[in-house]
Design a protein that fits this description.
Oligomer: single chain
Helix content: under 10%
């Protein structure tokens, strides 16, 4: 009857049926849209990111970084941000790779920033390695003096084995100070040499002694003494040569050469850049040009301490003492220096289209390449700490790219604390994607000034 509590009516039933049909059509439309997205590759994109910290010495472990801030600049525009889990991983999904190129940036306050730009989905998972903006933080000073040198006017050097960025050199009349991890047993390597003498075709040097000395763990500032009368480490001398670039106009033909032996050096897990070397095991006693001027001839003396990890020999074309910003190119070969003629080829240094004054941090950076199959990385560096040219932000681009734009950092990252407000330095480094039998083939442009 019309006055009962039954709310149903033919009109209401028809409306409800219409609503149901509409919802069903909407659901069908959504399903078709999702199928279309899947068919066309849209909204199904996924990016997996692994964030690692700087290498931990002496085991050379690149450990995952938990709670790192990660920002993904989406293809086609927009940004998504998250943090890494305990395994250092973060995942982004439901975006469209076909919309354009993306970029990912990771950072954690107290560490530096790392970015990879030009992502299009073909690179696979991305590994970002955060730099350590102050490698010596938390370390303690060890003041080292030398006794029984051949001549106290000679230069000498001391290094802590297996500890990154720990070395000092100076005149024998002066103590040297190195920063070492507290509570760690140390082996110090020290060498005495004559110093470089200019010759008709290059430079000569005499290495007088290379000794090793154990130092007990220290918890605060301490002193140690190197006795150069102690038995020297076993040493070997080899002579060989390596070719200069064939192009007579190559800037590398104007570079001085240097050969040094390290306990370890190699590319990071993402194969974008080279970390700094660990303890040196030897260096050249002669560097010169061949008679025809097409190769560098070297004589290298190195030591073979017990238990040394590695080693790696680095053949560098640079201006000696060029830490001020001159370009250089190096080839790293596993093992101690080899005798005879080597056949590897150095990468040409990239030429940056740097402004005549100062480059703004987020303005495009452009450069010229002279080799193929190389991964470019922009190194943003500061000299605010004791270690010169310390990386604070690395931005890697796709293979053979000749430009990039530095992304914005993730929200919540203290960029001013990392970069400061004064001018800092930029360099473009290139690493051969497949160096073949070589440990690495690497070159860097000259530096240019950057305004944060």
């Amino acid at each position: 009857s019309w006055g009962c509590d039954d709310d149903s009516s033919p009109a209401a039933d028809d409306a409800a049926a219409g609503d149901a049909d509409a919802h069903a059509e909407d659901a069908d439309a959504d399903a078709h849209a999702e199928d279309a997205d899947a068919d066309e590759g849209g909204a199904t994109g996924t990016l997996n990111v692994l964030v690692l910290g700087p290498p931990v010495w002496p085991d050379y472990q690149w450990n995952p970084v938990e709670d790192a801030l990660v920002a993904f600049d989406l293809p086609g525009g927009g940004r998504s941000e998250t943090t890494t889990d305990a395994a250092g991983r973060a995942t982004f999904d439901r975006f469209d790779w076909a919309a354009g190129a993306g970029a990912v940036t990771a950072g954690k306050n107290g560490l530096g920033l790392a970015s990879e730009v030009g992502l299009d989905g073909t690179q696979g998972d991305v590994t970002l390695v955060l730099p350590d903006p102050d490698p010596r933080a938390g370390r303690v000073e060890l003041t080292v003096s030398a006794v029984n040198m051949t001549d106290v006017s000679h230069p000498w050097e001391v290094m802590a084995v297996g500890v990154d960025q720990v070395y000092a050199s100076g005149g024998g009349a002066f103590d040297l100070v190195i920063d070492v991890p507290p509570g760690t047993p140390l082996t110090l390597h020290a060498g005495e040499w004559e110093g470089w003498t200019l010759t008709a075709d290059g430079l000569d040097n005499v290495i007088y002694s290379w000794v090793a000395q154990e130092v007990a763990p220290i918890s605060g500032p301490a002193t140690a003494e190197i006795d150069f009368a102690a038995p020297a480490l076993p040493s070997t001398t080899v002579s060989g040569s390596f070719p200069l670039p064939a192009d007579p106009d190559s800037p590398l033909r104007q570079r001085d050469a240097y050969v040094v032996v390290w306990t370890m050096i190699g590319p990071n897990p993402g194969r974008h850049f080279l970390p700094v070397a660990t303890t040196g095991l030897g260096g050249p006693t002669h560097i010169g040009r061949s008679v025809d001027g097409d190769s560098v001839e070297y004589t290298v003396q190195y030591v073979t301490p017990p238990g040394a990890v590695g080693p790696v020999t680095r053949y560098t074309m640079e201006t000696l003492g060029s830490s001020g910003g001159a370009p250089y190119s190096c080839v790293d070969v596993a093992g101690y220096p080899a005798s005879g003629a080597q056949t590897f080829t150095h990468l040409e240094v990239p030429t940056v289209h740097a402004p005549t004054t100062v480059h703004a941090l987020h303005d495009p950076v452009e450069w010229d390449l002279f080799d193929g199959g190389v991964t470019p990385t922009l190194h943003i560096r500061t000299t605010r700490v004791a270690v010169c040219d310390t990386d604070v932000w690395r931005v890697s681009a796709p293979t053979d790219a000749t430009s990039l734009v530095v992304p914005q950092p993730p929200a919540g990252f203290d960029t001013v604390a990392l970069l400061g407000t004064d001018l800092i330095r930029g360099r473009i480094g290139i690493l051969a994607d497949d160096p073949g039998d070589l440990q690495a083939n690497y070159a860097e442009s000259g530096c240019f000034l950057v305004q944060p």
